Amino acid sequence: MNFTKADVKFMTGMIGHHAQALIMSRLAPENGASPQVRTLAARIINAQKDEIATMQTWLRDRDQPVPEVHIAGLNLMIHGTDMDHSDHMNMAGMLSQEQLVELSNAKGKLFDELYLKYMIQHHQGAVTMV
Q1: At CA 18, angle to CA 96 and CA 118, rounded to 5?
Q2: In angstroms, what CA-CA distances link 32 with 9, 38, 50, 81, 96?
Q3: Which of 18, 24, 35, 121 is most buried, by the most CB atoms less than 10 A from its CB?
Q4: Phi and psi at residue 69, in whole multiples of 5°?
Q5: Alpha carbons 10 and 33: distance in angstroms, whole number
Q6: Which tens digits make up the pLDDT trace of 108-121?
């Protein structure tokens, strides 16, 4: 299996990136999101969890450090790599802690609007990473 340090860095970073999408999407039901946004959030959760597992397997199969994701409310902790919290938070598209708090405090239609705005930002950052 041929791979480069850049491949490992990308997979490791993308695991943290996907994990933030989980944090954002888990807020939808409790914040009164519309049925359409709840459906989107549920689909994002399913896809991101599967993709995180795939990337962890990819790293494991290549005997590379495998990030373990721990989510506590709005806080994301990544263990098992040499990347620290600031490395993950500085990736393209990642929401700041202030943006996460703003999203967490939003309800109903305001939540929907912020969720979509921030999810676009988040995924545009992922495209930049790719």
Answers
A1: 45
A2: 37, 9, 26, 36, 22
A3: 24
A4: -95, 130
A5: 32
A6: 999 999 999 999 99
